[in-house]
């Protein structure tokens, strides 16, 4: 199934909890909403600026619209709700800023020395961990304590990373999109085990750069975007 609507770079893909809707963010100042069973465009949401990232709350409660006091607004590459909806996480440069939703205040920052964070912030289904990608490394953190659990040395530039929604005793898998430039751009999708940090699979991707990847809610497939 091919979803054709946006005319410039697509930056993020998000399923709703039920898996029947897919939201697509783009630098054309739009977020599109799709029916995943038919591929039909249901709605579009116009934004005053280009959209780098989207995030869907973990419950059905409608949260009033508000703006966080972010100085470097245009530089943030990703934003996401925490599973409890208590925090909003946003990455910029070599750090992840964590905001309290009730107070709108910055409560913590995670710093990654010497790395520029790429892609989105993805959570495990048990809400215990989240994963982010840096230039050549994918990093796994613990929820609430913001403690680094382990890192995965990919060795190549990462465009995006996500984590599977399997629950114990099944192992989680981290999937990354990476690229190499050698006359042509070569993309591949790699799977890594979170328990051993070893690569367990690799799939050749598109001929053009891929920027975003996401698991479906039932964890049986993943979707990615290419130019």
Give structural notes:
The protein is mainly β and 227 residues long. It has a domain at 70-226: 7 Propeller (Methylamine Dehydrogenase, Chain H). It is 0% helix and 50% strand. The strands form five sheets. It has a four-stranded antiparallel beta sheet, with no helix packed on it. The protein starts with 9 loop residues before the first strand and ends with a strand. The model is unreliable at 181-188 and 221-227 (pLDDT under 50).
Keywords for this entry:
227 residues, mainly beta, Methylamine Dehydrogenase, Chain H, four-stranded antiparallel β-sheet, disordered C terminus, WD40_repeat_dom_sf
Question: Which overall shape is indicated by the principal axes computed on the Cα atoms?
Answer: globular
Low-pLDDT windows of residues? 181-188, 221-227
How much of the polypeptide forms β-strand, as a percent range?
over 45%
Structural class: mainly beta
Count every helix, treating DSSP H or I runs of 4 or more residues as helices.
Answer: 0
**How many strands?**
18
The CATH architecture designation of the domain at 70-226 is: 7 Propeller
Order of helices and strands: EEEEEEEEEEEEEEEEEE
Rg estimate, integer Å? 17 Å
Mean pLDDT: 69
Could you state the oligomeric state of the chains shown? single chain
Side by side, the strands of the main sheet go 1-2-3-4
Distance between the termini: 16 Å
Give a topology summary:
Blueprint: E1 10-15, E2 21-26, E3 30-35, E4 41-46, E5 78-81, E6 87-92, E7 95-100, E8 106-111, E9 118-123, E10 129-133, E11 137-142, E12 148-153, E13 157-163, E14 173-182, E15 184-193, E16 199-204, E17 210-215, E18 222-226
Antiparallel strand pairs: 1-2, 2-3, 3-4, 5-6, 6-7, 7-8, 9-10, 10-11, 11-12, 13-14, 14-15, 15-16, 17-18
């Amino acid at each position: 199934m091919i979803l054709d609507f946006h005319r410039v770079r697509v930056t993020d893909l998000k399923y709703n909890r039920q898996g029947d809707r897919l939201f697509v963010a783009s630098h054309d100042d739009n977020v599109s909403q799709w029916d995943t069973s038919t591929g039909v465009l249901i709605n579009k949401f116009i934004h005053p600026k280009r959209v780098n990232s989207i995030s869907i709350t973990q419950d059905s409660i409608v949260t009033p619209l508000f703006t966080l006091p972010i100085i470097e607004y245009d530089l943030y590459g990703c934003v996401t709700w925490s599973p409890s909806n208590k925090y909003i996480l946003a990455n910029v440069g070599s750090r992840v800023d964590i905001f309290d939703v009730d107070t709108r205040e910055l409560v913590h920052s995670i710093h990654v020395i010497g790395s520029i964070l790429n892609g989105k912030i993805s959570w495990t289904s048990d809400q215990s961990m989240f994963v982010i990608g840096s230039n050549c490394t994918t990093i796994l953190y613990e929820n609430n304590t913001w403690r680094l659990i382990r890192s995965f040395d990919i060795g190549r530039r990462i465009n995006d990373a996500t984590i599977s929604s399997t629950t114990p005793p099944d192992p989680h898998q981290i999937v990354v999109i990476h690229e190499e430039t050698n006359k042509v751009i070569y993309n591949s999708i790699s799977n890594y085990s979170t328990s051993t940090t070893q690569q367990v699979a690799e799939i050749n991707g598109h001929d053009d750069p891929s920027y975003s990847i996401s698991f479906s809610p039932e964890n049986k497939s993943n979707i990615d975007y290419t130019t």
